[in-house]
Amino acid sequence: MDPITLADYQEFDSEFWEKYFYVSEKLGPETSPEHIITVMETLAGVVMQKRDERDKETYAPMGFNKPVKEESNEEGVQEG
Q: Is the pLDDT score of 79 beyond 80?
């Protein structure tokens, strides 16, 4: 992989700063950059988890991923 250049930073930095300032605004003006970055990383993990949950609900399981239906033997069986 090629080293990251200044041109790469300039091309892609706007996405980072939008997220950084969003979190900074939520945490308040006295928050350190380290805390902001930590919250950004945690929030990214939550987003990925929620996307995964949403995607599982959107797409029906296929093949061996389908949930197994439990068979009930309640028909015709009388107790007592």
A: no
Total domain count, the chain:
1
CA pair distance 15, 44, nearest whole angstrom: 13
Both tokens assigned to 32: 């350190």
Q: Is residue 64 part of a domain?
A: no
Are 24 and 36 contacting, i.e. CB atoms less than 8 angstroms apart? yes
Distance of CA 34 to the CA centre of its chain: 21
User: From CA 67, how far away is CA 80, in angstroms rounded?
Assistant: 33
Residue 34 in tokens: 């380290």
- Confidence category of residue 80, pLDDT binned at 50, 70, 90: low
pTM: 0.64
Write phi, then psi, for 73 (nearest 5 degrees): -105, 35
66 in any annotated domain: no
For position 63, what pLDDT does the model report? Answer: 66
DSSP secondary structure code for residue 61 in this structure: -
